[in-house]
Design goal:
The protein has helices at about 5-10, 70-85, 135-140, 190-200, and strands at about 25-35, 40-45, 55-60, 60-65, 90-95, 100, 105-115, 125-135, 145-150, 175-185, 185-190. The chain has about 210 residues and is an alpha+beta fold. The strands form two sheets. Strands 1, 2, 3, 4, 5, 6, 7 and 8 form an eight-stranded mixed sheet that branches. The protein has a three-stranded antiparallel sheet with strand order 9-10-11. The longest helix has 13 residues, at about 70-85.
């Protein structure tokens, strides 16, 4: 294969994320609601019957299905299913920066408006309850931050003889920052907290 052929082949391809097909792709919605003339953010508490992360606080959302034409369609579909509202009950859906997680996940966050919270009827199989927090609380409160360190443990048959340093190779210790927002008796942490913090950063100058 000559150089011209190689460069032509590459020029026809849109650059993306290497190994994208191996990532679990999800989409979430940050729902904005108005209560007592003040902007609130709506959260869900995952049902205790859920197999993964029961009782955790999260935004509406879930895994992107093959039937979802776009991540935005997934965020709206999941919100509709989890909150028991119609598509028309969600407006002004706007994307923000997506998250590429070290754990092999890509999360596409969106922000949207739910004008009438009275229409919300949570799906009990997925949602234990919903609650709202004034946006001003998060704007005035910094999250607690802690580090989680990861230790490198190669497999027993790892070919140390093929790398410089062998068994004494100096593996780089990695860590992940975990954020914790508190509101009354609620704790918002994990990827939900990271997405929330980024959203707050985006609107901090407004």
């Amino acid at each position: 294969m000559n150089i011209d052929s190689i460069l032509t082949t590459l020029a026809e391809k849109e650059p993306g994320i290497m190994g994208l097909e191996n990532f679990r792709r999800s989409a979430v919605l940050i729902p904005l609601v108005e209560r007592n003339s003040e902007t609130h953010i709506l959260f869900e508490v995952r049902s205790l019957n859920m197999r993964r992360q029961p009782g955790d606080i999260c935004f509406p959302g879930g895994r992107i299905d093959s039937n979802d034409p776009t991540p935005q369609a997934c965020a709206i579909r999941e919100t509709v299913e989890e909150l028991g509202i119609s598509n028309q009950s969600i407006s002004d859906v706007t994307p923000i920066d997506y998250v590429v997680s070290d754990m092999g996940r890509i999360i596409y966050p969106f922000v949207g408006r739910i004008p009438d919270v009275k229409k919300i009827m949570p799906n009990e199989s997925e949602v234990g309850e919903v609650f709202t927090v004034p946006l001003s609380h998060f704007q005035q409160t910094k999250p607690d931050s802690y580090k989680v360190n990861f230790k490198v443990i190669p497999e027993e048959d790892f070919p140390f003889n093929l790398i410089v340093g062998g068994e004494n190779y100096n593996w780089q210790i990695r860590h992940m920052e975990e954020l914790f927002y508190r509101y009354e008796d609620r704790v918002i942490w994990g990827l939900t907290a990271k997405i929330l913090q980024h959203f707050l950063t985006l609107i901090s100058d407004k």
